[in-house]
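wait is this the right file?? whatever heres the structure
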């Protein structure tokens, strides 16, 4: 029901109209399911959308975690368990022991599943990291085919390709071993996925494509437009929407969503987290999705702040004790806004921006370069690390950020506590598997513009503890 109709209904109630037909109509409107308006999933469903979260398999035994999961969410994404290193750890040996428990949990609780992800430069198994050319192209296509076939019929939408575009001003592709197999690797992956699971929506997924003025956004937009024009089977675009001080939410986000939708694809918010979890920003994101008919739903990247890959930014809807934060209330109110007459209207004024009935901008992509994040103000470089720890193992992601000058290469040093051993790494060369380890750029990520950053990662056994990386230019 639109906001206008809700108002009309309220007025009718207040007037206590004696018209029998109208009164009967009111009674119908006022009857809603018990759970309506009280959980994210139920409220989103009333708007024809879903509300999802990333799930880590090792947390399914945490009842505080599953209590919130089962109560609030109706869509699930495996946080790491469907990635290439998890599903094909040795070439040709497929392993679903990490992902299947998540899929089974979701299905047995009536939740749907977003598949994440079939082809990506990140979190590749060691055997794939070392591959190039035709061998890699074939291995990638085999991976897409095998995994999509395994989950055929069980996946709502697949992130077929993840993060294939470069940050910064180029608007072009990110260099990677997959990209070096030829520019058509993305469409080849989509065709393989369609053949393997014709029922799944096939998405391209990326970050920093939220701001309509950014070159990366325009690069992806142009690819999707080209794919639609040439009949490449793409159904949706996933906006990771990891918002933070370097990549903040901007009010043109709704323009971005509606512009992509106007190309004839669905849009999904796939990995939402917002540094500090400001309630207003969460509300705006929710309203933006609701304002775009082809926005299927929102997935937050974790349940509690303690579950977040960026937990120090406290970016999620539940605090580490599992209590609802102000952002939760804002999202729920936005989902309920105008639809559920038994719920009080939100106390905040409705958005004054017009609904998205206006056509999306047809103007050509802006030629001005997007804003770059301000350099940290010092020369050299800095490094920060986020660790996802489970019992007996961990994955660490390291972000290398250039200072006020561009880097032509970098070395990161970090010391692991005793008992922790690196088993697998991506996007960096390393010396040392334990104790003090040194990490240097690989061919495609040594050049980092002033104030820009790049990432590498590694997986290990044992406990990573608090890691304090240092960075030096080469
Ligand atoms: C992150 C996970 O949350 C971490 O646990 C893991 O260590 C690294 O990957 N973009 C993506 C996600 O597509 O897969 C990433 O997830 C976050 C950024």
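ok assuming it is, sequence goes like this
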């Amino acid at each position: 029901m639109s906001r206008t109709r809700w108002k009309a209904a309220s007025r009718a109630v207040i007037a206590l109209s004696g018209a029998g037909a109208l009164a009967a109509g009111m009674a119908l409107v006022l009857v809603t399911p018990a759970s309506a308006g009280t959980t994210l999933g139920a409220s989103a469903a009333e708007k024809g959308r879903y509300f999802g979260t990333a799930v880590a398999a090792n947390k399914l035994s945490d009842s505080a975690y599953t209590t919130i999961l089962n109560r609030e969410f109706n869509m699930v994404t495996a946080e790491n368990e469907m990635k290439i290193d998890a599903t094909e750890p040795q070439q040709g040996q497929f392993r679903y022991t990490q992902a299947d428990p998540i899929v089974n949990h979701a299905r047995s609780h009536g939740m749907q599943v977003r598949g994440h992800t079939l082809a990506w430069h990140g979190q590749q198994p060691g055997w794939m990291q070392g591959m190039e050319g035709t061998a890699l192209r074939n291995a990638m296509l085999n991976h897409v085919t095998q995994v999509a076939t395994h989950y055929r019929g069980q996946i709502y939408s697949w992130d077929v390709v993840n993060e294939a575009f470069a940050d910064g001003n180029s608007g072009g592709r990110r260099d990677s071993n997959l990209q070096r197999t030829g520019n058509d690797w993305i469409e080849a992956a989509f065709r393989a996925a369609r053949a393997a699971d014709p029922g799944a929506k096939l998405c391209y997924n990326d970050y920093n494509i939220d701001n309509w003025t950014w070159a990366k956004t325009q690069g992806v937009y142009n690819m999707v437009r080209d794919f639609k024009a040439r009949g490449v089977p793409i159904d949706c675009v996933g906006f990771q929407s990891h918002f933070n001080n370097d990549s903040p939410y901007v009010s043109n986000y709704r323009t971005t969503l509606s512009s992509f939708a106007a190309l004839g694809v669905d849009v999904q918010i796939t990995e939402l987290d917002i540094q500090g979890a400001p309630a207003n920003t969460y509300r705006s994101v929710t309203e933006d999705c609701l304002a775009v008919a082809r926005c299927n739903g929102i997935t937050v990247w974790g349940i509690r702040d303690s579950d977040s890959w960026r937990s120090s930014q406290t970016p999620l809807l539940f605090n580490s004790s599992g209590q609802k934060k102000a952002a939760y209330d804002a999202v729920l109110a936005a989902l309920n806004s105008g639809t559920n007459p038994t719920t009080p209207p939100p106390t905040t004024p409705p958005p004054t921006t017009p609904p998205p009935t206006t056509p999306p901008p047809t103007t050509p992509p802006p030629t001005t370069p997007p804003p770059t994040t301000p350099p940290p103000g010092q020369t050299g470089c800095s490094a920060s690390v986020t660790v996802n720890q489970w019992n007996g193992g961990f994955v660490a992601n390291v972000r290398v950020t250039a200072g006020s000058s561009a880097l032509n290469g970098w070395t990161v040093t970090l010391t692991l506590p005793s008992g922790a051993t690196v088993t697998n790494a991506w996007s960096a060369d390393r010396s040392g598997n334990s104790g003090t380890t040194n990490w240097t750029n690989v061919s495609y990520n040594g050049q980092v513009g002033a104030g820009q950053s790049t990432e590498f990662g590694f997986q290990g056994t044992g406990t990573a503890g608090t890691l304090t990386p240092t960075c030096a230019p080469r």
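The first helix runs from residue 3 to 15. so i think its the right one actually
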